[in-house]
Each structure stands twice: as C-alpha cells, then as structure tokens.
Amino acid sequence: MAMRRFYNEIKGLKVKEVPDHVKPMLSLDFVKKSVQKGLDNYHAKYIQTSSVDPLLHVCFGGMVFSYLVALPEERRHLEHQQHAKEHGGH
Predict the structure, then answer these.
(1) Of 6, 9, 1, which is closest to residue 38 (Cα–Cα)?
(2) Which of 73, 48, 71, 47 is nearest to 58 (CA)?
(3) What is the structure's pLDDT at 90?
(4) Which residues of 62-86 are buried (b: 16+ CB within 10 A; e: fewer)?
(5) pTM passes above 0.70
(6) Torsions phi, psi of 11, nearest 5?
(7) Which residues of the chain fall below pLDDT 50?
(8) Interatomic CA distance for residues 30 and 43, integer angstroms
(9) 84 and 90 in contact (C-beta within 8 Å)?
(10) What is the C-alpha radius of gyration for the chain, rounded to an integer number of angstroms?
(11) What is the distance between the alpha carbons of residues 79 and 72, in angstroms, rounded to a whole number?
(12) Are 26 and 34 in contact (CB under 8 A)?
C-alpha cells in the first residue's frame, strides 16, 4: 500500500525532481513520525478493540525470528552433509 502510494507520487515527476521529493522522506524526523503513525494505527486497530491478533503476531513473529536466527547454522549443517556424501566421509 505504501509502495503504491509512493509510486503514484513520483510517477508524475521528472527525473530531476525525484531526489528533491525523496530526500525529506529519508530524514530521521520523517521516519520517526511514520513509525509513530504506524504504531498509533496498530493500537487503534488491534489493542483498543481487544483483538487476539497481537498475540498471534507475537507468536508468528517469534517463529519467523527463531527460524531466521537458526537458518545459517542449518545451512552449514546441510552443506557439511552434502560435502560428506560427495567425498565419502563422516
């Protein structure tokens, strides 16, 4: 949704105008305001309505995080197994 809005904003601009349009969006103040707005919207949509969705978000987020943390070790393990199969080792 945000990407579509951003695309619609810049598609009418000339190439020389794009950096002047994008530069304010990269400021620390703009990012802080955007994050705060997102958190406010999340609070209004889920927390104030006593929805169970935040619990699900935490559970699924934890699963994804743990998967991503363990992924490099799993890849090393699988590469070691493949190498052992190719070379007949342990």
Answers:
(1) 1
(2) 47
(3) 63
(4) eeeeeeeeeeeeeeeeeeeeeeeee
(5) no
(6) -70, -20
(7) none
(8) 20
(9) yes
(10) 22
(11) 11
(12) no
